[in-house]
Every structure is written in C-alpha cells, then in structure tokens.
Amino acid sequence: MSTETYNVPDISCGHCVEAITGAVKPLDGVESVDVSIDDKTVTVAGSFDDIAVRSAIDDAGYDVA
Questions:
Q1: How many angstroms separate the CA atoms of 53 and 56, rounded?
Q2: Would the pTM count as exceeding 0.90?
Q3: In 10 A of CB 19, how many CB atoms?
Q4: Which residues contact 54 (CB under 8 A, 6 or more apart)?
Q5: Which of 22, 32, 38, 42 has the fewest Cβ atoms within 10 angstroms?
Q6: What is the pLDDT of residues 13-49, one digit of tens each?
Q7: Do residues 18 and 32 make contact, with C-beta atoms less than 8 angstroms apart?
C-alpha cells in the first residue's frame, strides 16, 4: 500500500471535497481519500494507478498542480 498527496489549488469548498472524493474513491485499489480544503491537497492511500487518480481529479473539474 502506498500514499500519495496531490496539490489541487482550486479546492475551496465542501462541494469540491464531495466531487473529488466521489471521483477518486471508486477507482480500483483506492482504500481512502482525504481532501483538505485548508491545504488544497488530495491524499490517496491504497494500491492505485497514479495516472487514473490524476485523470479522475481532472474529470471532476480540478487541475493537479
């Protein structure tokens, strides 16, 4: 299992948290998703594909810095 933190500068509200969590959580191998409004980060844990996570965040309408 690994943990990766992504910087997502556009995170600003609860809707952002819900949208990103909803996009990333169902991905294969994702065990947990923590979206921080204050830090503007998404921390993902599990055995997941980095490209799939980045793509899911992008598909939810947010850019990974």
A1: 5
A2: yes
A3: 18
A4: 6, 64
A5: 38
A6: 999 999 999 999 999 999 999 999 999 999 999 999 9
A7: no
